[in-house]
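Pasting as-is:
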Amino acid sequence: MEIGVTEAVQKHVSRHVVPPKPISQRKLDFEHSRPRWLREMAAEAIGVFFYVYPGIASQASFFLNGTEPVFGSLFQIGWAYAIGIAFAIITCGSTSGGHFNPAITICFAVWQGFPWSKVPRYIFAQIFGSFLAGLLLVGQYYPQLSALAAELRAKGVSPNSLGGPGSVLCSFPGPTQTNYGYLFFIEFFVDSFIGIVIWSVLDPANPFIVPASAPFVIGLAYANMVWGFANVTISTNLARDLGTRIVAAIFYGGDAFGDYSAISILVNVPATLFATLVYEIILRDSFAIIAKGHNVHEE
């Protein structure tokens, strides 16, 4: 029976799938000649672009239409980032490892033996991908964003404030959110939550995750924190925030790098290191990894 079912499935697939074209030696030679480091950097930049672009596009739709529910909500924005992250991992993860976050790259170097020599270029590529996403979005929404910036300036309000064009691109606290210690701890624990989820998803001993589900679980971890704390102001990713913040500074003023920017840019790294430290000390079970054949004892 098994053989019969298998043959039936194979015949069904062969009827509906176009046979692949044979791969030429010329194509193999071309692919082999590409510098590995350049492919990895491009994949990290493209992946971050895929993650950031849908998120800020959703924010643009929301803010430019006066936060009218028909044009979006925090729920929609959370899903935009979640699905964008899933697409980023699916599209580019097989080429570069799918870090898309400087803090994750650093944690891989600390805990998993990722070469430290690659860390600076991965981080540069990640920030560059976010910068490109912000630049493209400003180009696409330039008339609307410029009009909103002019409207806010006429009221004596900086475009780089909550509800302004700058906040479409990156995080800015509300007028009453002046307690930076509070904002620091919110960002720290939000990023720690995401970090633990990512590290657990990447644990080969975790029986609840299969490779096909990993991109969506990681995306949902981000969305979960957007839904819970976006009203408090969070950034969640150094590259995502810094790349688009540079764009905000170029178009809407240097005050994009105000006092809060240090929290939104830098807290992600120590928070994720803390999260992965907790996982490595308390939750990691290396014997289970060895028993499942995913690793070996060094002796």
